[in-house]
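Hi P.,

Sorry for the delay on this. The queue was packed all week, but I finally got your sequence through. Input first:
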Amino acid sequence: ALVLFLLNALVLLPLSIYLLYKTLLNIGVSAKRAEMAMILATIFTLKYFWNNLVMFQINYLILVFILGGIFFLSRKKPYIAGILFTIVTFIKVIPIFLAAYVFIFHFSRKVLISMILTVLLCLTIPMSTRGFNMWVKDHVDNYEILVRQYILEGRIVADQANHSLKAGFIKTFYPETRTNENVSTKDYASIIRVLTILQVLLLLTLALNAVLLKRRKRYFSLAYLASILLFTHLISGITWTAHLVTLIFCLLPVLLINVKSLKMPG
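Then the structure:
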């Protein structure tokens, strides 16, 4: 626990800031604007970093892998980004959308081979350390908790620290759920159906933007990558406060907006 605490506090947070700063420079943001954006983004998200620190969470490490992948995308090395996104997907499945982004936008033989080899390593290494029977049990448990309960059954955890789309709407419009850890989907079938449709619409919007970006040959978009991360937080069954460390990246497209370009002509 002490090693994890020191790693989070002294290594991973500074490394996250460094990777983001270098990414901004790689895509042509001036050093002055990049510095100001990073200062503000760090200040605005310190709450989430602190939450991870005091609760000994692994989300710092997840963030570094994600930011590392984005950094290598900005360096035009998508095969390394594909490796990093694939590894982190096997730790927490939600980053699979980032892996899909690399696969779709930067498809090549090198990217394909590197990602397939990473998948094989991520499957075989745990098997060799956990044993085959425990390895199978791990995947069965993952299916029961993630796929069956949260995806197929639509389970909702109405905890005040859960910030997913479904949990947010349920807690907003049905205050009585705020004291319950688990909400019965049968009691709120109508609004859950509406929220499911909303999630599908968000996914379709994301897909449409991907098509438009690819047509314009925009293979790196800070705003689009940020929208992928925001989308994963919204559709996830549970988005704890600690998961929101990725907002340090998601805030950058907003902080880097050129206000003068948004003004309408007189």
